[in-house]
Amino acid sequence: MSTLTVQALGAVAAAVERHLPTLVGDRVASRLFDRDATLWGEDAESEAAKRLSWVGLHRSSRPLVGEIEALREELRERGVSRIVLCGMGGSSLAPEVITGTAGVDLVVLDSSDPDMVRTALEDGLERTAVVVSSKSGSTLETDSQRRAFVHAFTEAGIDPTERVVVVTDPGSPLDEQSRADGYRVVNADPDVGGRYSALTAFGLVPSGLAGVDLGALLDDAEEVADLLAEDDEANPGLRLGAALAGTQPLRDKLLFTDAGSGIAGLADWAEQLIAESTGKQGTGVLPVVTPAGASPTAGLTTTDDCTVVVLAPEDQEEPTPVEGAESVVEVAGSLGAQLLLWEVATAVAGRLLGINPFDQPDVESAKQAAREIMEDGAGSADAAAVTDGAVEIRTGGGDWPAQDVDTLDGAVTALLEQLDPRTGYLAVMVYLDRVEHAGLADVQADLVQRTGRPVTFGWGPRFLHSTGQYHKGGPAQGVYLQVTGAPAQDLSVPGKDFTFGEFLAAQAAGDAAVLADHGRPILRLHLTDQEQGLAQLRSVLAR
Fold first, then answer.
1. What is the three-class DSSP state of 165?
2. Which residues contact 515 (CB under 8 A, 6 or more apart)?
3. How buried is 496 (Cβ within 10 angstroms: 0-12 exposed, 13-18 middle, 19+ buried)?
């Protein structure tokens, strides 16, 4: 039997007590499960009206289970033992959590980095099937990856229509073209937004093909659905939503730590759901995923603007003590149950914040900036302000630094001086191969110690579909460190006049331009030689 537990301590306990009577009295839970689009105000009503089918996916997705199992057997008979997922944002993060928790292999390709794409193409192509996931059917990253795999299959003498499975909304450009070309297409529910799509075809198809028991996952969600729909003060979705967004003043940094939940990567999925849903109109709550094994409050000089979110084991009876934390919410439950819980809580948080939790107005601005840079050509890139060894340095977003800097160390120091010591955060955004350079994420803990403030670490372009919305639409508290690098070897996008490396560079430059236009301080570091540049960078950031 699937269960859910939400325990609140300190400031969040007061928030829960304050908001629960109103949430229950306004029938927020039952109205949500009745798909009442008026819950978030008149401005959000039209968008919400076409984004609420996720509340019933534990039932409506059941027919997919048999279809996916049959397709899995069909692929196995063709010698397929490796599944690659090409997708971004919710299309990749949910399957990553589902398969990681189940202990089955899934290669998640959510990058435009040519080195990462090449590795995915070359590692066991003869036993590979690819799931191409795009809600809109026009996601450029996913289309580029699809083209690369179709070309590789064709060159290897493998019929791509027998190895590529497309997941998209009905009637999308990708849906229509794929069907015309003879590809297998599975349509997702069009009335579910990407970040709420864990239990749609976007989450289930790649996970099921990789070997996950989808029936059990849906069972876990169905067992708690009635609980989450109740207008009752014991409703864990209402309690968690109030804890996330109901503190006064708002504690807008959520420090996630896993205390043995057994759910692999849940914090990364929740980061995308919460940041993209709430970070707009100058408000929001920012999830900060604590490095494994580290205390969520270690190195922070104050936690006045923070709530610690503890992801606990299901069978834990007593709350996990968190040193130095005055506001703690502990959450436990099975994966299927928690996927639905966090979606409900995020929708409730949106109501408390007075924003629309189903749109992402600032994500498109970065995409448009990237498109404009690609149209202008690679030669349009602005010149580096200074070069230090293998690192080119550029700055943007205001009139900093106050004086000229001519070293990498000086530039990093100047950026960190822009950080508000009581409310600020640092976002590290790295556009490199996240598998090859996974160890670079260790600088997160070093930078927390150095700044005394929360630090997020995101791989580009993955984070653009997650915290990228919060960076531009949330409160103006952040400073931003962007890292890009010259690829070891670039890779052409078949049928297009640009390379993966050029596309990735445009994505980084486009995001930086939008951040600068919003007045957010950003330091851009480009590694002209990745090995030498990373050595320099680690030395400076770790001091």
1. strand
2. 396, 397, 471, 472, 480, 522
3. middle
Listed residue (120, 313, 335) closest to 212, CA to CA: 335
Would strands 386-388 and 391-396 be described as parallel, antiparallel, or unpaired? antiparallel
- State the DSSP string of 264-330: TTHHHHHHHHHHHHH-BTTB--EEEEPPTTS-TTTT-S--TTEEEEEE--TT--SPPP-TT-SEEEE
Residue 379's pLDDT band, with cuts at 50, 70 and 90, is very low
Residues 220 and 335 sit within 8 Å (Cβ to Cβ):
yes
**In angstroms, rounded to a whole number, what is the distance separating the alpha carbons of residues 340 and 270?**
11
Q: Tell me the residue ranges of DSSP E strands in 326-381.
A: 327-333
For 487-503, the DSSP string reads -SS--B-TTSSSBHHHH
Write the pLDDT tens digit of every residue in 484-536: 999 989 999 999 999 999 999 999 999 999 999 999 999 999 999 999 999 99
User: By three-state DSSP, how is residue 166 classified?
Assistant: strand
Which of 267, 282, 277, 281 lies closest to 456 in space, CA to CA? Answer: 267
**Calpha distance 163→159 (Å, rounded):** 7
Instruction: Please tell me the pTM assigned to this model.
Output: 0.97
Alpha-carbon distance of 160 to 30, in angstroms, equals 46
Q: Is the C-alpha dihedral spanning 471, 472, 476, 480 positive or negative?
A: positive
Q: Long-range CB contacts (< 8 A, 24+ apart) of 217-220?
A: 217/98, 217/335, 217/336, 218/57, 218/58, 218/61, 218/62, 218/65, 218/336, 219/2, 219/336, 220/2, 220/334, 220/335, 220/336, 220/337
Q: What is the pLDDT of residues 138-190, one digit of tens each?
A: 889 999 999 999 999 999 999 999 999 999 999 999 999 999 999 999 999 99
Residue 262 burial class via C-beta count within 10 angstroms: exposed 0-12, middle 13-18, buried 19 and up: middle
Q: Is residue 201 within 8 Å of 167, Cβ to Cβ? A: yes
Q: Tell me if residue 429 falls in helix, strand or coil.
A: strand
Indicate if the alpha-carbon torsion angle 55, 56, 58, 61 is positive or negative.
Answer: negative
The alpha-carbon radius of gyration of the chain (Å, integer) is 23
Name the DSSP letter for residue 535. H
Closest CA to 427 of 439, 413, 415: 415
Coil, strand or helix: which one is 122?
Answer: helix
User: What are the pLDDT digits (tens) for 426-483?
Assistant: 999 999 999 999 999 999 999 999 999 999 999 999 999 889 999 999 999 999 999 9
Residue 179's CB: how many other CB atoms inside 10 A? Answer: 12
CA distance 153 to 156: 5
Amino acid at 326: E
* Beta pairing partners, 429: 458, 482
Question: How many CA atoms, within 13 angstroms, populate the side-chain half-sphere of residue 117?
Answer: 31
Q: Cβ-count burial of 258 within 10 angstroms (0-12 exposed, 13-18 middle, 19+ buried)?
A: buried
